[in-house]
């Protein structure tokens, strides 16, 4: 087993977070020295406010930053109020839509809410800080930027970066605006170095090119070695990126997704993913992770419950995790209806069964609902629905409840008012 001098890199390697590092030995020695002296290293994670919540796919680098803080270091969360106005071309086929000022500010507050679930913010030496790159870009002089920063970049080198290269290979137009993104993110890194002594950037593997642009700028412009550290893109056994469920994002913020749904996402993880998810999405000690991932057959369900509970506890708090677990236990094990199931409302005069499932978010369209009915995949009060034109009314209430189910794992309540 690989052994590092620093506690942080040992944890990253053991738990499966380690993908690439710009200078593994140098980063390890830098962190170990900081840990020995009790002086926090400073590292940052950036996210453009193109939405008002992060989702499960964003949690991997966020959990890395959480461990960074647990090891006695100081995390910075950067929201790209400036770069969101341009758009990161990484993995994109076209220019990102422009957002108005009100939307950007709304999204920034949403991202702050997401970050605060995983990190401790405050004024302490290891407390997290949130910064916005619009603060230093809004009044920047374009000619000075070109002279001071643009001269440090080689277009030949930029064209070899995956974010640019893959776009050009697909013959998709790439605007000069997007081509600038790499310079802006590199400049962010150096501003954080100057303002906060930040020497590390933590991100997902798709940000490697942008990270390297920052480390190279730090060396050329400020004669300082900066470090980039990335996590792998987490996929399931089918090779699909984690973070989506039935085509919908599994949101971190509770106003975007009920805690029960968040719990159920992890409860329904495939058997092959349990160990990986326990390592990455929970704080459980590795001895306990190894014990749980060794469980077989029906016992693996116990590991999934613990995974779902621990992941929900970090993101939504212990009370919400307990409520979700209790609802799942009632619904799946006791044959009753849990108190915290997803709900939808409809008129007491009645609602079509297709509209009811659409309102709950269990299907993306009426066409999908029709297909599931033909496959005996939808149930009303635990009875298979056979009539796609059925109207649900108050006569379907059982003890005041109407239970709708898709398959064996998705349940919700319909309330008629």
How would you describe this structure to a colleague?
The protein is α/β, with parallel strands linked by helices and 417 residues long. The chain folds into three domains: 7-231, Rossmann fold (3-Layer(aba) Sandwich), CATH 3.40.50.620; 258-332, Orthogonal Bundle (Tyrosyl-Transfer RNA Synthetase), CATH 1.10.240.10; 343-416, Structural Genomics Hypothetical 15.5 Kd Protein In mrcA-pckA Intergenic Region, Chain A, CATH 3.10.290. It is built from 18 helices and 15 strands. It has a six-stranded mixed sheet, sandwiched between helices. Strands 9-15-14-11-12 form a five-stranded mixed sheet. A two-stranded antiparallel sheet has the order 7-8. Strand 5 (200-204), helix 11 (208-222) and strand 6 (227-231) form a beta-alpha-beta unit. Helix 12 (259-267) packs antiparallel against helix 15 (300-316). The longest helix has 17 residues, at 300-316. The mean pLDDT is 87.
Looking at this protein, list some descriptive labels.
single chain; 417 residues; alpha/beta; Rossmann fold; Tyrosyl-Transfer RNA Synthetase; Structural Genomics Hypothetical 15.5 Kd Protein In mrcA-pckA Intergenic Region, Chain A; 3 domains
User: How many strand segments?
Assistant: 15
- Side-by-side strand order of the widest sheet: 1-6-5-2-3-4
Q: Can you tell me the number of structural domains? A: 3
Q: Please identify the structural class as seen in this structure.
A: alpha/beta
Query: What's the CATH H-level superfamily name of the largest domain?
Result: HUPs
Which outline best applies? globular
What integer is the average pLDDT? Answer: 87
Distance between the termini: 61 Å
The largest sheet is: 6 strands, mixed
CATH structural architecture of the largest domain:
3-Layer(aba) Sandwich
Percent helix range: 40-55%
The number of helices is 18
Q: State the name of the first-level CATH class of the largest domain.
A: Alpha Beta
CATH names the topology of the largest domain as Rossmann fold
Radius of gyration based on Cα positions:
24 Å
Beta-strand content: 5-15%
Sequence stretches where pLDDT stays below 50 over 5 or more residues: none
